[in-house]
Amino acid sequence: MPIAIVLALAASLGIHAATLFGTDVELFGGATDEPVTLHAELQPPPAAKAPADSKPESKPPVRPRPKAKPAPLVRAKPSPTAPTTPVEPEVPVPVDESTAEPATADAAKPPPEPVKPLLPAHGVIRFIICMGTSGFQIGRAEHRWEFTEDGHYRLYGVTETSGLAALFKTVRFENESRGRLVAGGLQPEHYLSRKNGKDANENADFDWSSPQVLLSRDGQVRPILPGTQDILSLNYHLAYVRQPESGATLGVVTGKKYERYALDSLGEEEIDTPAGRFRTLHLRAMTDSVTEIWLALDHHRLPVKIRFTDKKGDVFEQIATELGTP
């Protein structure tokens, strides 16, 4: 029986480690064409500016500025042909001015202002992990988050065995998500994972200029769609999803792969937890397994309960025991 408990905990660790929600639908191929088209459209504007800027070559016969610099060049080479020399100094002058203009325009662009977070600037949620619906505890978990004034965020999660399960085998899984807060919600940049203090090799680095993600597990680079989350940031990005009561579809990087998660809304429910009674929105994702999440509507849509049902029908619940928010 104790061995079964440890194996059950390993499955419950999947809530944070691998497949919180999951479908096998991967949208590759088409997404890689978009950046190519954008790069092609960005090239014509500089080419169009060159002839427009070259017009001043015929306009300024009077060269008050160039005289100070090109004067030595004119006298050093062809002094008898001084009347024809205006062509030489005028060539570099418009080139210098044209290159200076775009730089000035770029410098004039104000940096984007940080987006104000919907969640508290920092906080913590603690959970118990139970096997089945009888409340038999096999583990515990904790999430911490922080939003900085410069528009960045950091999420940290830890899941570990507790009670009887910890007597037979200690398992501790940590994961971390770092990134920026943008208009559409969380935009992860780095996802890290550790098991029992060692690198779990289920990390991901996001490149939003492409957009694509590098998975450390197999070293592959995968194209991703805008709004994609990692498995930890997903729980807190839901606070920024518009009308989640109508359902949503999101890209998710688990550390092993990139998937699309379809979330169905089961409506509002009031639930009792050790952390209190909450009015929640019940979401569900169904694949070969089922994952359900309850978001506290009066507490920034924070996750207060997660239920995972595996392929065999075994149930594991993660229930909030404490919401430490300002």
From TrEMBL:
Annotated TM spans: none
Keywords: Signal
Pfam families noted in UniProt: DUF3108
InterPro entries assigned: DUF3108 (IPR021457)
Disordered: annotated segments: 38-113
Ranges annotated as biased composition (Low complexity): 70-97
Record's protein name: DUF3108 domain-containing protein
